[in-house]
Amino acid sequence: MARITASVYTSHVPAIGAALDLGKANEPYWQKVFSGYNFSKQWMKDHRPDVIFLVYNDHATAFSLEMIPTFAIGTAAEYAPADEGWGPRPVPKVVGHPVLASHIAQSVIQDDFDLTIVNRMDVDHGLTVPLSLMCGTQDPATGAWPCPVIPFAVNVVQYPVPSGRRCFMLGQAIRRAVQRFDEPLNVHIWGTGGMSHQLQGPRAGLINREWDNQFLDELIASPAQLAQRPHVDYVREAGSEGIELVMWLIARGAMADVAGGPAPRVAHRFYHVPASNTAVGHLILEEQS
Ligand code: DHB
Ligand code: FE
Fold first, then answer.
1. Quick check: CB of 132 below 6 Å from ligand 1?
2. Tens digits of per-residue pLDDT, 133-154?
3. CB-based burial of residue 163 (10 Å sphere; 0-12 exposed, 13-18 middle, 19+ buried)?
4. Smallest CA separation from ligand 1 atom 1, residue
5. Which domains does the chain have, with CATH numbers?
């Protein structure tokens, strides 16, 4: 059967993609951000998955305000990097895994979560920036991401957005779905977005280091308790876009300890301020067999 062997958490700041694409990664400002991912790029080579189940949010790119799925699973064979206003990022297309994605859709919907099935979409910085951070730069013409990716988009842009509790339960259903897949695939699940940031209004620029680090502590040690936190806490403490962090609870809910198994090992932890208007947080949790 397929197995989830690790979960990865990272912010997706679009300016990180721009810094990479415009050759600014070696500037001191950006070096401080990228230094937190040197370990991770090597770790990805040493623990190469067969498939990444990548939980992210679309920023009104593939889904406009005309159509807003709460949870959408990508079942396509491939996904093009989106044009977010400056042309598509010069990164390889994202290859999907339609067979596993369709199986997960079947299992999770039968497990009472209503997913939207997406057979065609472009993917924005919410998905491509985490891939760049974890996998390094790739030539868009000749390069490729290291493995297929199943994009899983969560609405955290237009209220009402799903609760942390619902996200945590969904992660548990995704774990069951992966375990029911009859091929020995090594699957990583990623939770992306966050950490504290607010992009508009009088509180624009809000960063809350203490809250972010407590979120990381609780995500590691007491995720079920963290999942009970209401939206208003995220928005008040971590800013309006800090609500992206509920997506991390999907990945965390898919780990073994939530289903009664052993606690994961913290392979890597990183926190840095600032990257553009955002605090950057990053964790790698490995399952202990
Ligand atoms: C910024 C951060 C985001 O997460 C995003 O989606 C857009 C902009 C920023 O820090 O500028
Ligand atoms: Fe965002």
1. no
2. 999 988 888 889 999 999 999 9
3. middle
4. 13
5. 3-286 (3.40.830.10)
> Of 59, 97, 125, 282, which is the active-site residue?
125
- Sign for the CA dihedral angle at 9, 14, 16, 17 comes to positive
Parallel/antiparallel/unpaired status of strands 116-118 and 94-95: unpaired
Contact 167, 227 (CB under 8 A): yes
Tell me how far the alpha carbon of residue 175 is from its chain's centroid: 16
Residue nearest to atom 9 of ligand 1 (CA): 277
From 124, 278, 282, the mutation candidate for ligand 1 (largest count of ligand atoms within 8 A of CB) is 278
Going through 140-234 in order, the beta strands assigned E by DSSP cover 149-154, 186-192
Task: Count the residues in the chain.
Answer: 289
Torsion of CA 260, 254, 286, 238, to 10 degrees: -110
Please say if 59 is a catalytic residue. no
Would the pTM of this model clear 0.85, i.e. be above it?
A: yes
CA distance 122 to 82: 5
Note if 231 is an active site residue.
no
